[in-house]
Design a protein that fits this description.
Elements lengths: L1 H24 L4 E6 L4 E7 L4 E7 L12 H18 L5 E3 L8 H11 L5
Parallel strand pairs: 1-4
Antiparallel strand pairs: 1-2, 2-3
């Protein structure tokens, strides 16, 4: 159990370190990608106002197919890019929540960039 506790502690440290750096440097909204064992979710957050601009998730009934693989991440990127365009957001800062930039995270980011987001 100590090994799992240490792993979670290291992840929390990485998350907090990156979040602080992003908040202190950027005036753009923060794009947060979160993955769980069952679903993927993303939020576009304005830290200066403390509000969520828009969000998307694979947890709803409207999202068809597998809800946690690379294809789902790609669809999620397209959906969020479309919602961000509707809200008038073009440039964001990407927050990976301490995870490596590969797999589902990379697929999501590529799809969001193709949809028109800049980061």
């Amino acid at each position: 159990m100590d090994r799992l506790l240490e792993k979670r502690t290291r992840l929390k440290r990485r998350v907090n370190r990156v979040k602080f750096a992003i908040r202190s440097r950027a005036l753009r909204p923060r794009l947060v990608f979160n993955r769980s064992n069952r679903f993927l979710s993303v939020q576009l957050i304005d830290d200066s106002k403390g509000i969520t601009i828009c969000s998307a998730t694979t947890a709803g009934k409207t999202f068809a197919g597998n809800k946690k693989n690379k294809d789902a991440a790609k669809k999620l990127g397209e959906i969020l890019a479309q919602k961000a365009k509707e809200k008038g957001v073009q440039s964001v800062v990407f927050d990976r929540r301490g995870r490596l930039y590969h797999g589902r995270i990379a697929e999501f980011a590529d799809a969001a960039r193709k949809g028109g987001l800049e980061f």
